[in-house]
Write a structure and sequence with these properties.
Layout lengths: L2 H19 L7 H44 L11 H10 L15 E13 L4 E12 L3 E7 L4 E9 L9 E7 L4 E10 L4 E11 L6 E9 L2 E9 L20 E9 L3 E4 L3 E6 L4 E6 L12 E4 L2 E6 L5 E6 L12 E4 L1
Parallel strand pairs: 1-10
Antiparallel strand pairs: 1-2, 2-7, 3-6, 4-7, 5-6, 8-9, 9-14, 10-13, 11-14, 12-13, 15-16, 16-17
């Protein structure tokens, strides 16, 4: 055998062994299926992670909103607060949970009479007041929800007509500005078919807009003069005193105005009594009004003159006016003596 033949044979043997060692794996669909399964699994894990993160974010947002509603928006006086769990348990036992979040007032209570005493400070356009509201309980409740917009409520007391004298225990009271209400949460329920009384002291600014209790000015003989009057229609009585400021809640009103003696005051009814205090201020107490809605209540502190006349049906009509044009309105201060 020659050398060339041996080399050819050896070369073929080597190439044959190399060819045998190389395995050509055909492409099969299992490999593609495995890749697709991994992609689907990764996509599912991503979706699940996104759902979990979203759920956690929503839970935190709801918790933050509840905390903000009870701590940042609501003003809880020192010494009357408690932890959130105790508040929630008390609200559950009291029936309706957080009734102050509703747009309309709860129907468990109905006002019967308001006794309003206001001190008006014309030098800095502020006023302070005391409101005593007689209530009738229709359905058992632990919450008293009434309107108060822009009022700084200082003290609150609730009394019952039951045989047990003294004030009822108040769990806390706070404002909820979102619905312009003030909330009083009691330790025990108010019982149906009983009457209760709320005493509230408050103070606020006399507004410079044509809303609520506002002030205006006019010029007389080159002198700037001021008047403070009311505009409660349709829902602005809540800016002047705590009240059930919806037309359906009708009650009677007794208004007392205290102010500097250089001014005079008028209201819906004629003056029942008038007198000077020791500090030289004038106090006018007006007669009790008929049963009416809050937006019909009105008063004014001014130095205008007034005219009265009797109608054919025996109704006294009084018109309080100035001899010049006001900046905001004219002849607004008409009162009907019913």
């Amino acid at each position: 055998m020659g050398i060339e033949e041996l080399s050819v044979r050896n070369g073929r043997a080597v190439s044959d062994r190399w060819a045998d060692s190389v395995v050509v794996r055909p492409r099969t669909p299992e490999r593609h299926v495995t890749v697709h399964q991994r992609l689907v699994l990764a996509f599912a894990v991503s979706i699940l992670t996104l759902v979990v993160v979203t759920a956690v974010a929503v839970t935190l947002a709801v918790s933050f909103e509840k905390c903000g509603g009870s701590s940042s928006e609501n003003v809880v006086p020192p010494g009357t607060g408690s932890n959130q769990s105790r508040d929630r348990s008390g609200e559950q036992k009291g029936g309706d949970v957080q009734p102050w979040r509703r747009l309309r007032l709860p129907t468990a209570l109905r006002p019967r009479h308001y006794d309003l005493q206001l001190s008006v400070y014309m030098h800095n356009f502020t006023f302070s007041g005391e409101a005593s509201i007689e209530l009738e309980c229709l359905n058992a409740t632990k919450f008293i929800v009434l309107h108060a917009d822009g009022l700084h409520v200082e003290k609150v007391a609730v009394y019952s007509d039951s045989k047990k004298p003294g004030a009822m225990r108040i769990h806390r009271h706070f404002r909820y500005p979102h619905n312009q209400v003030h909330v009083i949460a009691l330790h025990r329920e108010m019982k149906p078919l009983r009457t209760y009384r709320i005493n509230m002291t408050f103070q606020a600014q006399i507004q410079n807009q044509l809303l609520g209790f506002f002030h205006t000015s006019y010029a007389l003989h080159g002198e700037r003069r001021y008047a403070a009057v009311t505009q409660f229609s349709p829902t602005h009585a809540r800016k002047a005193f705590p009240c059930f400021d919806e037309p359906v809640y009708k009650a009677t009103f007794s208004v007392t105005l205290r102010h500097d003696a250089s001014y005079q005051s008028v209201s819906n009814m004629p003056i029942e009594s008038s007198g000077l205090d020791e500090d030289g201020w004038l106090t006018n107490r007006f007669s009790r009004t008929p049963r009416m809605s809050t937006y019909y209540v009105s008063w004014a502190v001014c130095d205008f003159s007034s005219r009265e006349t009797m109608t054919h049906s025996g109704v006294m009509v009084s018109l309080t006016h100035s001899s010049v044009k006001l900046h905001y309105s004219t002849d607004f201060y008409s009162t009907l003596h019913l």
